Amino acid sequence: MALNSKIILHIMGLLLLCNGGFMLIAALVSGIYADGATLGIAIASITTLFIGISAMYFTRGHKKEVKRKEGYLIVTFGWIVMSLSGMLPYIFSNAIPDITNAFFETMSGYTTTGASILDDIESLPEGILLWRSLTHWIGGMGIIVLAIAILPLLGIGGMQLFAAEAPGPNTDKLHPRITDTAKRLWFIYLGYTAAETLLLKLAGMTFFDAINHSLATLSTGGFSTKNLSLAYWNDQPLIQYIVILFMFLAGSNFVLSYFAFKGKVQKIIKDEEFKFYSAFIVGFTILAALVVYFQANVPVTEYHPMPLGAGESSFRHSLFQVIAVITTTGFVTADFTGWTPFLTVFFFGLMFMGGSAGSTAGGIKVMRHLLIIKNGLLEFKRTLHINAVIPVRYNNKTVKEHIVYNIIGFFVLYMLLFIIGALVLGALGLDFVSAIGGAASSLGNVGPAFGSLNPLSNFNGLPDLGKWWCCFLMLAGRLELFTVLILLTPYFWKRT
Amino acid sequence: MALNSKIILHIMGLLLLCNGGFMLIAALVSGIYADGATLGIAIASITTLFIGISAMYFTRGHKKEVKRKEGYLIVTFGWIVMSLSGMLPYIFSNAIPDITNAFFETMSGYTTTGASILDDIESLPEGILLWRSLTHWIGGMGIIVLAIAILPLLGIGGMQLFAAEAPGPNTDKLHPRITDTAKRLWFIYLGYTAAETLLLKLAGMTFFDAINHSLATLSTGGFSTKNLSLAYWNDQPLIQYIVILFMFLAGSNFVLSYFAFKGKVQKIIKDEEFKFYSAFIVGFTILAALVVYFQANVPVTEYHPMPLGAGESSFRHSLFQVIAVITTTGFVTADFTGWTPFLTVFFFGLMFMGGSAGSTAGGIKVMRHLLIIKNGLLEFKRTLHINAVIPVRYNNKTVKEHIVYNIIGFFVLYMLLFIIGALVLGALGLDFVSAIGGAASSLGNVGPAFGSLNPLSNFNGLPDLGKWWCCFLMLAGRLELFTVLILLTPYFWKRT
Ligand SMILES: [K+]
Ligand SMILES: [K+]
Questions:
Q1: Element of type H or E holding A394
Q2: Is B221 marked within a binding site?
Q3: A489 is in an annotated binding site
Q4: In terms of CA atoms, which chain A residue is nearest residue B451?
Q5: ipTM of this complex > 0.85?
Q6: Cα within 13 Å of Cα(B15), Cβ side
Q7: Residue A398 is inside which H or E element, if any?
Q8: What does the alpha-carbon distance between residue B73 and residue A387 come to, in Å, rounded to a whole number?
Q9: With a CB-CB cutoff of 8 Å, which residues 65-94 of chain B face chain A?
Q10: Conformational region of residue B126, where left means phi above 0, alpha means psi within -120 to 50, and beta covers everything else
C-alpha cells in the first residue's frame, strides 16, 4: 500500500493554518500590551500561515480517504509540525533565541507537559506568555480529538473500550466522529476555560493571569505566568481551590461532563473510572495531608503563609499537589520533594497514575490501572481454576481479551520506555534521582520532577541532548506510545 | 475442598529434619574450629530435629495425595518454617541475639538474597559462618525443585513453558518429577559446588573461605565470609574470574548443564534464553567497562590494586558486577553505586533482569523478558493488522496465549509490588534512593542496593519493621510472587 502523502501534507497545512491563526491572537495581545514582541510574533504567524496555505494549495487534489497507517503518521507528524512552527514566536521575538530551548518549550507546551527551560518567566513579554499558554490549550484540543476519534480507530492501548461510551455516530470513518463528537467536547473545554477565567478573576487574579492559568489548567499543561507557579497565591486559598476544581474536571472524562450537562447524572455515578479517579484523589489526599500535618520535615509554614491555619494549609497543599500530579497538570504550590522521604516516593508513584481516559491528562490513566488490577486479581483465580474462562468486566460489560492484552502491553511498554528514558538521562550525566524523576515526569507529561528537576527548579540545567530526549519522551507519552513508536518498527514501513 | 493439613505438617516435619541435619554439619565444623558456638548450634540442631521428628510422627497416617492448593501452602510455609528454625543457631550461639535480625539474616539466606544485618562478619565463629552459607545452599536446592517440579504444576508465571523442556517423566504427579529430575539437577549443583571449592582453593583461598563462597555462589546467594565481600581478593584476579565463571553457571538453566554433560551441545546453542542471557552479559559488560575505564568519577584504583593494569581492572570489575547483579548473586568487588550516575541507573535497571529460568537466580528472569519483548514487538504488528492472529514463538514453538498472559501478569505484579515495597520503605523513613533500591534488591533477591544500602553498607540501619517488610519482599520475590500472594486472596480460602 502506497501512503497517501498528499492528504498527510494537506492536513499538516491545515494544522499550520490554525496554528498561525492562534499566533495572530498572541500578536494582537502583544500589540495591546506594547510588550515589544509584537513584530516577532506577527512574522512567525505570517510565516506559518504562508507555509500552511501553500501546503494546502499544492495538495488540494488529494484523495479524501485516510487509512490507518496514514493515521499514525498524521498524528505524530502533526505534533512535530505544530512544535516546529510553534517555536517561531519564541525565536523571532528573541524571547528564547536558542533552537533547542525554543523547541523544548514548545513541545512541552503542545504535549501539555509544562516543563520549562525558562529561569525567569515573569520577565517575558505578555504576548509570549499568552502564546506559551496557548500551546497548552491547542495541545489539549488535539488530545481530545485524539482520544475520542482517532486512537480508538488506530486500535491503541485500550482506547476502543472508552470510545464505545462516547456520544456521536458510531461509524468506522474518521470524519463524522471528529466533526460531531469532538466539537461537542471542544465546546465543553472552551466553556470550562471561560468559567475558570471568570472565577479566577473574581477571586482576585488579574485578567491576564486568569486566562493564562485557565488555558494551562484545562489542558492539564501547567505553564504559569509566575516564577513561583501557583505558590504565588499561597495567601489566597480561594484561587487555589478554584484551580483544584478545574484540574479535577480537566483530569476527568469530558464525555462525563457532556452527560452532566445533558442531565444524565446516572451515567456519571455508574462510571467505574470516575469512581476510582475520585476515590484515589480522596484517599491519597487524606494520606498526604496527615503526613504533611504531623511529619513534614520542611514545615509548610516556612515559606507559606497560612491564612486559614496549619490544618487547612496542610490539606490544601496536599490536595493541590495530589490532584496536580494525578491529573498531570503539574502546577506547584509547594515543593513536595522536600516534604518527607515517604511523600517523595509517594509522589514519584503518583507520576505513573495519570488522569481519566477522555480527559486532557497524560500518564497511564486510571482506566488502564483499573483493568490491570482487575485482571491481576483474576489471574489468581485463573491460577486456581486452570480450566475456567474468567473474563475481566468493566462498567458491567465483559472486556474482550485482546483489549486487556492491549492495555497490559501498553503498561509494559510504558515501564520499558521509562527505564530506557532514565538510563539515557543518566548517561547524559544526570544523577540517579533526577534521571528517573525526569523520565517519569516527561513520559507522563507531568512537568515538575525530582532532584535537580524538582518543582521549584526547571529543565534548563539539562544538556542539549537531554532536552531533545525529553522532547521525545513527552511526545511518545502524550501520543500513547504506540502512535509514535510504531513508526520506528519495520512492520510499519513494509509494503503489504 | 478441605485442605489436607496432615500432609502439610508432615512435609514441614521432613524439612525440619533435613534442616536439623545440616545444622549438625555446622555444629561439627564449629567443634573442629573450637569457635565457641558449638553448643549453641548443637542445641539448635537437636531442637529442630526433635520438632521435625515429632511432626512427622504425629502425621504419619496422612493421605499421600497433594492437591494444588496444598502445594501453594507447602511452598510458602516451607520457606517460613525453614527460616524460623534456621535462625536458632544464630540465637542460641548468641551470634545474632536479636530475633528480628536473626530472622532477617536467615530469610535472606534461604531466599538466596544475601542482604545482611551484620556489621562485622569476620568476627563470627566459623560454625556460624558456615551455617550462614549453608542457608543459601539449602535455599538453592529448594529453588531447583521449585522451578523444575512444583511451579509448573501450580501454573505460575510461565514456568510451564520452561518445564516442558526439562528432562524426566512427563506426568502430572508431583512425586516422580521431584525424585527424578530434581535429583539429577541437585547432582549437578553439588558437582559445581565441589568444583568451585577446589578451584578457589587452588587459586589461593583458604579451604574454609573456598567452600563458603562456593555455597554462596551456586545458590546465587552472595553471603561472604569477609566484610569486603569479594573485594577482599581484589589483588587476585584469578579468584574473581573463578567466581565469575560459577556465577554465570549458577544463573544459567541447570537443565542446560545436564544436556552439556550428556553431550547434547546442540540443545544449548539453540536455547534462546541462553543466547540472550549470554548476549546481555557480554553487551552490558562492554558498555559498563568502557564507562568505568573512561569516565568513572571514583577511579577503580582508589581502593583497588590493579595487578594487571587499569584496562583489565575495569573489565574485571564491570564483568563481575554485571554478572553479580544479573544472576542476582550480589557479590561485591567494587561499589558500583559510586562509579558514575549513568552506571547507577544502569545497575538499578539490571536489578530487574534476573538470571535464567531453571537456575537458582531470582528476579524477573531472562525468559520472561524475552517473551515480553517479543510479544511487545508483535503487538505493533497486531495493531497494524487487527484481524490477524499473531502468536509469540519461543525456542521454535508457538507459545500458548494464556502463558504469555501469565508472564505479563507476573511482570505487572512484580512492578506493583516493587512500587508498594518502595513506598512502605519510604514510609518507614528511608530516603528515596535507599527505598527504591532496597525494594528492588529485596524483591529480586540481589542483596546489595543503593543509597544507604549500597554494596559497601548493609541492611542493619533499617528500622525493625523495615527488616520484616524486606523479609516479605524477599520471600515473595523468591517464590515467584503468586505462590505467596495467592494465600492473601479470598479466592484461595473459599471452599469450592
Ligand atoms: K503537565
Ligand atoms: K543474592
A1: strand A393-394
A2: yes
A3: no
A4: A432
A5: no
A6: 25
A7: strand A397-398
A8: 21
A9: 68-69
A10: alpha
